[in-house]
Amino acid sequence: MSEDQDDRLVEGMGVHDVEGKHIGKVMKYDEALGYFETAVMLSAPRYIPFWAIDHFGPNGVYLNVERSVVTDVYSHMPTVTPDLTAEGKLAGSGEIQSGWTGKMVPLDAQGVREVRELIHAGAQVVDAEEKSIGRVEAYDRSSGYMRIEKNDLQASDLFVPVTSISYLDDTGIHLSDYKRTIAGRFNRVPEVARSFFG
């Protein structure tokens, strides 16, 4: 899809796969990032990059992929990587995967603020294999560190930086590392967040 076609994407319009099968409808879209969210019948929302759009027709938007790709591959929000200063604090910038090209592009300060707002106490945290790490017990917005409660599998709380987040979606926070790596690297309060976590 070329950038001048995004004005034909309308909330509520039908979404069809490459075989023309109806798979849902457009819920909302973001022209700057190049993604639209679709409600797929009886399942969680899907986040479809603009480059997956083949064409527009009388019944809505038609994709260049099958329904299985939408349900299996586009099940998460695009990856966001926040930047940190040398002291380890959030810099107010970062990168996100573009829905136009698939490449990482700069994310503005507003976008980073929105990502930070999605992190909250009680959110479920999983590792790169979707294994549960625990829940966010506290979050220091200044340093960008989350304290994840200890559980049966870990002896102490974990202190994980937002830079370890691969993506966030409606099921929780997905980290980019495996559970044993996270437990080994983030088992102490970092100096930059010591005043918050005490």
Note down, in words, how this protein is organized.
This protein is mainly beta. The chain has two domains: 3-72, Photosynthetic Reaction Center, Chain H, domain 2, CATH 3.90.50; 80-188, PRC-barrel domain (SH3 type barrels). Helices cover 14% and strands 39% of the residues. The chain has helices at 67-72, 109-118, 179-185, 194-197; strands spanning 14-16, 22-30, 35-40, 46-49, 53-57, 60-63, 80-84, 90-97, 104-107, 124-126, 132-140, 145-148, 158-161, 165-169, 172-175. The strands form three sheets. Strands 4-3-2-1-6-5 form a six-stranded mixed beta sheet. The chain has a six-stranded mixed beta sheet with strand order 13-12-11-10-15-14, covered by helices on one side. A three-stranded antiparallel beta sheet has the order 7-8-9, covered by helices on one side. Residues 1-6 have low confidence and may be disordered.
Key features of this structure:
198 residues; mainly beta; Photosynthetic Reaction Center, Chain H, domain 2; SH3 type barrels; 2 domains; 4 helices; 14% helix; disordered N terminus
- How are the strands of the biggest sheet laid out side by side? 4-3-2-1-6-5
The CATH H-level superfamily of the largest domain is: PRC-barrel domain
CATH topology of the largest domain: SH3 type barrels
Task: Find the count of extended strands (DSSP E, 2+ residues).
Answer: 15
Class of the largest domain, according to the CATH hierarchy?
Mainly Beta
CATH level-two architecture of the largest domain: Roll
* Structural class designation: mainly beta
SS summary, helix count: 4
**Which band does the percent of strand residues land in?**
35-45%
Q: In whole angstroms, how far apart are the ends?
A: 51 Å
Number of domains: 2
Helices and strands, in order, run as EEEEEEHEEEHEEEEEEHH
